[in-house]
Amino acid sequence: MTTNGTYTPPVTPAVSTTDPLAKVDAMLAINTDLARTVLVKFIQDGVQKVGFQKVVLGISGGIDSALVAYLAAEALGAQNVIGVRMPYKTSSPDSLNDAQQVIDTLGIVSCTIPITPMADGLITQFPDMSRMRQANIMSRQRMVVLYDQSMAQRALVIGTSNKTEALLGYTTLYGDSASALQPIEDLYKTQIRQLSRQMALPAAIQHKPPSADLWIGQTDEDELGYTYEQVDRVLYLLVEGRYTVDEAAEVGFDRDFVAAVWKRVRLNHYKRTMPNVAKLSRRSIGHDFLYLRDWSG
Amino acid sequence: MKVTIGLAQIYPKIGAVAANLAAHLDQIAVAKVQGVELLIFPELSLTGYNLQDLVYEVAMHPTEDDPTFKALLAASLAHDMDLLVGFVDTDQRARYYIGSAYLSRGKVVHIHHKVYLPTYTMFDEGRYFAWGDSVAAFDTRFGRVGVLICEDFWHASPPYLLWLDRADLFLFHSASPGRGISSANTLSSAHWVELVNQAYASMFTSYVVHCNRVGFEDGLNFWGGSVVIDPDGEVIAHAPYFEETLLVQTIDLNQIRRTRARLPLLRDERTGLLTSELARILGSAAQPSRDAEPIHFFEGHHE
Fold first, then answer.
1. B183 and A29 in contact by Cβ < 8 A?
2. With a cut of 0.95, is the ipTM above it?
3. CATH for B2-263 (3.40.720.10, 3.30.360.10, 3.60.110.10, 3.20.20.80)
4. Which of A7, A187, A220, A282 is deepest in the core (most CB within 10 A)?
């Protein structure tokens, strides 16, 4: 055989288990080399085709932004990745330190822009403002900072959303979900952990409890009410597997849990779509004026 | 008889016909240096794949009057190199087709229109394109050839029809998006295509050549992995995944005779049985009974 590259016949590791949950976990297992190859090329392509060389992203100290920073540094070179730390006054010092570790390990360009003054400019006007409103404001202020840095440094904003949070709507619209390209949004949280392990992210970041750190002591899993391992299995069956709620429950889950997850996916669909456009003309944006995003680049 | 085949695993840019033509001419020049006699480009190689409303802007006529085809025809003559290119064809009645043109020595030898237009999941071809209504082999200086485009060979009947139409060399080309990551070391779409193409080469004791594109369109990746498979079903050349490549492989058409001496599947193919059984099956489906026949194979057929 002649070959211009490396080719080995496809091999799927055998799964020998009768445990239904372990079988779903096996379906969620990804070939991390393959994912890494595609995502690195996606970032290179997505940045270059719109005439940019650099990306900018928020580095929170969590696993998602760390992984995107690693992928972007591999794709573009560390000198072309700008990591921004954006602490609020209540942010955990551990988050800031973990973020700095990502920046130092990769040797990417960095800056720290506290959002306290800008966020408090609005928050203090409403003494009774709920915690959730404050959290959304923080998320959106970070978006403002990143898009400002995008213009200041001619760097494309690269997103750090994952598939689990996007499906569950565990995200702030026009806040953390705002970006020009999303390299890891088709990976569930548990798959992000697999890829992070393969890319040797700092152990502290890989193993700490996921948190948006929008208030003191917040963790994703407390707020969601279930673990990522649990919900990823259900989402995988419902989304990839096209199981009905009943079929997914039969695999070995509480039906109310499955139904609640699917309801949450539905109720948050507006966060994953563009706003509806009232159609009047024969050819309308959002309906039948159809070009790829890449048309512009 | 030996033929040196080139598979131009390129990255066509969406809607950029002039740039894509320039890339074709570059590939032809490089291939010539490597002795290529037949150079195959991917599906929609001149236009890019997911064109949506750009379909109407990039459509062309595969004739000398068209500036793109004029350049390609001239190159096929100047370099004495046969070419298979992908483009958007349109007819006089404003219908659009995903087209493949086989060019040789300054002439258009054959046009194939894609007969199966995937319109499901991320595919929306049926929204824009008319389907072709012919699956025909044609004679070339390298023997009789059959051309199919991507979804065409996800169905078993087009390759089979080409085999009965005396094709011994199957030229398949694709713009196949990668999808289906698992713990396996290839994407499931790549694995599936390689599996069926090895099956066609094996069952038809013929050469199967598959040229797929690379690059990205919006979030879609195209996985490349172009292959040449011999009449024994062995992959004899394999391009890398995801990388632009010119894969060059010389094939020995005499291997077809040697394989068929060992495995006379074509000699034994019972086309009379096929015809009579097909008539029976289609005849009974013409008067379907929902209760008696749980599977109605032809109900979805729109023609």
1. yes
2. no
3. 3.60.110.10
4. A187
- For B150: left if phi > 0, alpha if psi spans -120 to 50, otherwise beta; the answer is left
User: Is B295 part of the contact surface with chain A (CB cutoff 8 Å)?
Assistant: no
B-chain CB neighbours of A195 within 8 Å are: none
Determine the length of chain B: 303
CB contact under 8 A, B236 and A1: yes
* Per-residue pLDDT tens digits for B99-148: 999 999 999 999 999 999 999 999 999 999 999 999 999 999 999 999 99
pTM: 0.93
> Choosing among B212, B222, B238, B249, which should be mutated to test the A contact, i.e. which has the most A CBs within 10 A?
B238
Q: Taking the CA of residue B79 as centre, how many other CA atoms within 13 Å lie in the half-sphere pointing to its CB? A: 25
Nearest to A31 among B181, B225, B238 (CB): B181
Report the residue of chain A nearest B239, measured CA to CA.
Answer: A4
Q: Name beta bridge partners: B249.
A: B5
CATH number given to A26-221: 3.40.50.620
Integer Cα distance of A243 and A239 in angstroms: 7
Residue B239 in this model has a pLDDT that exceeds 80: yes
Asked if B280 and B287 touch (Cβ cutoff 8 Å), the reply is no
Cβ separation B186–A10 shorter than 8 A: yes
- Kindly list the domain boundaries of chain B, sorted by start residue: 2-263, 270-303
